[in-house]
Amino acid sequence: MVPGHQRLTRRHAPHRMTQASAPQRQDGGGVLRDNYREIVVFCGRRSVAVVVHFIYGPRRIIAKQALSLGMNQQQQVASEENPYQAMQARLDLASARLGLDPNIIAILRTCEREITISMPVVMDDGSIQVFEGFRVQHSTSRGPAKGGIRFAMNVNRDEVRALAAWMTWKCAVVSVPFGGGKGGVVCDPFKMSKGELERVTRRYVTGIMDILGPDRDVPAPDMGTDGQVMAWFMDTYSMHQRSYLPASVTGKPVSIGGSLGRVEATGRGVMLCAREALKHLGMNPKECTAVIQGAGNVGMISALQLARIGVKVIAISDVHGGLYNKAGLDLTGIREHMKRRRTLDGFDGGDRIGNNELMELECDILVPAATENVITSRNADKIHAKIIVEGANGPVTANADKILDDKGVFVVPDILANAGGVTVSYFEWVQDRMSFFWTQKEVEERMERIMVDSFAATVDMAQRFGESNRIAAYMLGVNRVAETTRIRGIYA
Ligand code: NAD
């Protein structure tokens, strides 16, 4: 153990903030001290950094402390819902529990490289629209940066940073030899024509090309992007490099070097985690119900895969709202309807319910598979699921972790639950580099082994350290990245 760095017990963790960007200033109200663990909250327009010890305190104490520091309610919510700070809060807890060297923590808390680009694109009507794009590489300590490209209106720099860091921990949890990256473009892909989408994609690739490549940074699909976008991505990159380079991106159609099983991989991984959680808790899938938020790639496939092992899926939603049927939904019908209409609207095999209502339904398994911050301190106590399997990245805020923990909800955290996607992306990258392709069965068997082993390692870590599954998964991932960072050394 590092001298002077104490091991922490779960309930009494005087965690040390260590790195340069961590809050050292104690103005704006000073550092509050009580028996609660500490978490970093950046508040106020001047980015005054305050350390608040609260995790084990009732919510009104959090609010009282924050208000006494000049935070209004809106700022508290913004703070809780900043995914980058949420990532750092969990990283701090895991690092403290591991007794990591403060110098290593300082490296892991920040992103290695960030690019912001401004992208003029000619629209169908002849006008020019200027889009903002990002690519962030959080870590390349264990291998090339790896992570998706998101096309959505609410993409922003802190979200992309958080998503990049989550990729670092995720790749380490499932032991694939990648670091973490993420990218995004502020746009609404559903309002663009196919031609506009292609021009945005190609312009984005050329804008960030200098840091890409099979050995540098390998993107993949995420919200609002799909196999076609990845095909344009690979084509643009290959043309500029004057080479055929399918390993430059994953999630491509099979005809241009994609892997069998990649489309289903994330949802299938969610099902495998749910299946292992049920086994761990002694529950029979055939007697269980599931609720899914999100009817896109991850949500829809998770629903279908859960149904395959006998779980009854009683509700699913998209951004416009949900469908509920106590007797079980017709998932094949919903999938066909979604392919035609791209929305659940108009499907009549269930009752319409709102997204908030859907999250609070009585069920055994809840799969948030849409976006971040859907379970926060405002609704965590209203969640009735016994198990949460996080298909989406960052669906639960750091404040909500504690509430779910107290309620005894078994949470399979995002960096494990949705790692099936990056696992098969890794297989795709390997196959492209070898130009030798595997059968679907080979892909599925190898992926299942990795997911089942990673689930077992996380639960074992949680039990050994008396930690939540989330912090245990962070401990597994962070420790592996810390080790490569330490062994490689600091190049001055
Ligand atoms: P997608 O675009 O295919 O689907 C997203 C779905 O969520 C859509 O049905 C959309 O209508 C719905 N949605 C969006 N905002 C919502 C909201 N506020 N409330 C309810 N529903 C909402 O995206 P995807 O690829 O399925 O990704 C979903 C999540 O899974 C994201 O967090 C993504 O980062 C994560 N993820 C995806 C992959 C992958 O392989 N695609 C891998 C790992 C993690």
Verbal overview:
Helices cover 43% and strands 17% of the residues. With 492 residues, the protein is an alpha/beta fold. The chain folds into three domains: 10-108, no CATH class; 113-256, Leucine Dehydrogenase, chain A, domain 1 (Rossmann fold), CATH 3.40.50; 264-419, 3-Layer(aba) Sandwich (Rossmann fold). Strands 11-10-9-8-12-13-14 form a seven-stranded mixed β-sheet. A five-stranded mixed β-sheet has the order 3-4-6-5-7. Helix 3 packs across helix 16. The radius of gyration is 22 Å and the shape is globular. It binds nicotinamide-adenine-dinucleotide. Nicotinamide-adenine-dinucleotide binds next to helix 9 and strand 9.
Class by alpha and beta content: alpha/beta
Q: Architecture of the largest domain, according to CATH?
A: 3-Layer(aba) Sandwich
The number of domains is 3
Mean of all residue-level pLDDT scores: 87
Question: Can you give the helix content as a percent range?
Answer: 40-55%
CATH class of the largest domain: Alpha Beta
Q: If strands are numbered along the chain, what order do they take across the biggest sheet?
A: 11-10-9-8-12-13-14
Q: Cofactors and ligands present? A: nicotinamide-adenine-dinucleotide
Short overview:
By secondary structure, this protein is of the alpha/beta class. Helix content is 43%, strand content 17%.
